[in-house]
Design a protein that fits this description.
The protein is α+β, with helices and mostly antiparallel strands. The chain is built from four helices and eight strands.
Length: about 190
Amino acid sequence: MRRYLLLMRSPIFSSVIIILFLGACQGRLSKYGEEFAELMQENDGLFRGVNIGDTREQVVQAEGGEGAENTDQQLVYEGPVGEAGTYTIRYTFENDHLFEILVEASFEQTENGRKMLLGFRNYFNDQYGPYGKEAGYLVWKTPAGAVNQDVTIEMTDESEYTELKQWSLSIYHQAPSAGPVVNEPAL
């Protein structure tokens, strides 16, 4: 009887550990906001478990299926976020590898869009350090040696310019600079 009780504890204990682990993973994203966690979905990768340089098949697998619009160069996913928001994600491919991720989200209430923007801002600050500002965008650059090195992340709040209460996010590969061009005199 004692052995049976010990065996019964093991699966229960394992189940509890798994539930706690899954809750902790979701909790890491939800600390940035529920709508952020819903849109981001995964803590791995740059966005939704996807990295710049991934193949089309890897993106389709991360997204759980084909998008709403599909071409050789682009996959588009659309859907609801939160109670009154929508999103569009465009994955653009170059040479059969992911080159750029564009995300737009619109909300009926400006406050919901701002919460989403703050969630992404805080998440990327935690991942890549404090943002910089360039031409009205919040900008992060991934560090050298990272899985996604030479990647730029730009985010902007467009709600003040439109009635759609919109924000956008661009994630793309930024080729490293070759340095200044020096013109040498002809011989």
